[in-house]
Design goal:
Strand content of chain B: over 45%
Structural class of chain A: mainly beta
Oligomer: heterodimer
Radius of gyration of chain A: 13 Å
Helix content of chain A: under 10%
Strand order of the largest sheet of chain B: 1-3-8-7-6
Radius of gyration of chain B: 13 Å
Largest interface: A-B, 19 and 21 residues
Order of helices and strands of chain B: EEEEEEEEEE
Largest sheet of chain B: 5 strands, antiparallel
Number of helices of chain B: 0
Structural class of chain B: mainly beta
Number of strands of chain B: 10
Strand content of chain A: 35-45%
Helix content of chain B: under 10%
Number of helices of chain A: 0
Order of helices and strands of chain A: EEEEEEEEEEE
Chain lengths: 115, 109
């Protein structure tokens, strides 16, 4: 693995189904993020994690949950998918500390369609 | 509230120079990032400004004025591969990035 990976690349999902988007990084970054990107809108933060074992809510957390059991993995779960969750989902990571800030590195994205 | 303003779309000619402006309002400020995003791909880091002034990196430069809540990205010697969206993203007091909708740059031969 080089950098940050996401799976699946794309998915079509029936409304009401449960879905987990996977994200793995091998850069040992402490911080990880989930964004959604919709046409005409900026990236919107769903959830984030500043370090393994901790998570926080972003701008649009409703309908999504995350966990951070270890440094490398940060899965995003849609408990019961709805059509408004149709979007492109990006996972990102950064080597951030409280006194400095480094750029975020993005995975290739997951294109999710909820019907 | 927090707000980012940048033009929706710009067109420029190959070999020319283009300036993409961004104005922002955030709760606190911890620097400003510019990212490039080609269609169907992930954003990639271009530049970071935390102090006022110009940061130059090859054909790309980025400027910041914290007092004016203003930044711009300057692209010189435009190439066709520069056709992409350019995202302005200041970091707020919690170091969370606030993303603009992006400026789609179209390069014509």
């Amino acid at each position: 693995i080089a950098g940050i990976t996401q799976a699946p690349t794309s998915q079509i999902l029936a409304a009401g189904r449960r879905m987990t988007l996977r994200c793995t990084q091998d850069m040992r970054h402490n911080a990880m993020y989930w964004y959604r990107q919709d046409l005409g809108l900026g990236l919107r933060l769903i959830h984030y994690s500043n370090t393994a074992g901790t998570t926080g809510k972003g701008e649009v957390p409703d309908g999504y949950s995350v966990s951070r059991a270890n440094t490398d993995d940060f899965p995003l779960t849609l408990a019961s998918a709805v059509p408004s969750q149709t979007s492109v989902y990006f996972c990102a990571s950064s080597d951030s500390s409280g006194e400095s800030y480094n750029e975020q590195f993005f995975g290739p994205g997951t294109r999710l369609t909820v019907l | 509230g927090q707000n980012i303003d940048q033009p929706t779309e710009m067109t420029a000619t190959e070999g020319a120079i283009v300036q993409i402006n961004c104005t922002y309002q955030t709760s606190g400020f911890n620097g400003l990032f510019w990212y490039q995003q080609h269609a169907g791909e992930a954003p990639t880091f271009l530049s970071y400004n935390v102090l006022d002034g110009l940061e130059e990196k090859g054909r790309f430069s980025s400027f910041l004025s914290r007092s004016k809540g203003y930044s711009y990205l300057l692209l010189k010697e435009l190439q066709m591969k520069d056709s992409a969206s350019y995202l302005c993203a200041p970091a707020d007091s919690n170091y969370q990035l606030i993303w603009g909708a992006g400026t789609k740059l179209i390069i014509k031969p």
